[in-house]
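Appendix C. Worked example: DMT family transporter
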Amino acid sequence: MSKYSASVDSVPKGILLISAAVFLLSLADAAIKYFSARLPLWQLFLIVSCLSVPTLGAWLGKDIKSGRHAIASVFWVTTRSILLLLMWVTYYSALPLIPLSVAAVAIYTTPLFIALFSTLYGDEPLSLRGWVAMGIGFAGVATVLRPGSDIFVLATLLPVIAAVFYALAMVVTRRHCRKEHPLILALGLNIAFLVAAVIGGIHRIANGQ
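Step 2, the predicted output written as structure tokens:
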């Protein structure tokens, strides 16, 4: 596959959308941190998906049938959804165990992993300056998390693992899902949430919890 042309990108619009998304995700993180002590993760997924799947399905149903929003690749939409699901499960599992500020520092290694995976798989090589900046970024995160010290706990690695899953999902989105409508991607993710919630509920019932 050929390299992407910068002419097809809208950098200012992309930066604005990413900033808005990070703001909304920060609010969601705080809400999950608050509710995680009261509700298990699968119930939170169930609440979100039961609201989102019918709404998105009704919104997109007619357009998909008419071919206006055809799914270009079910495989890559599914792969992206699973990666994001793994990201949320890993990250939200960490929130009851570590301070939200520490989790936030760890999860925001995401841009560093995105840059790395984009170079290795996304056919978007980094310049020398980019590699230096990425090294400084990892050093800064390590300084905050302090692996190997007495205050370090293994749960701190969960947001870092989540960052890896998220970065992989973003590279898949960029490389394989560029033609997918955003609402289709959102529907795929919420279906994954619903499946995970059902599996979690069955597991809890089977174990008598």
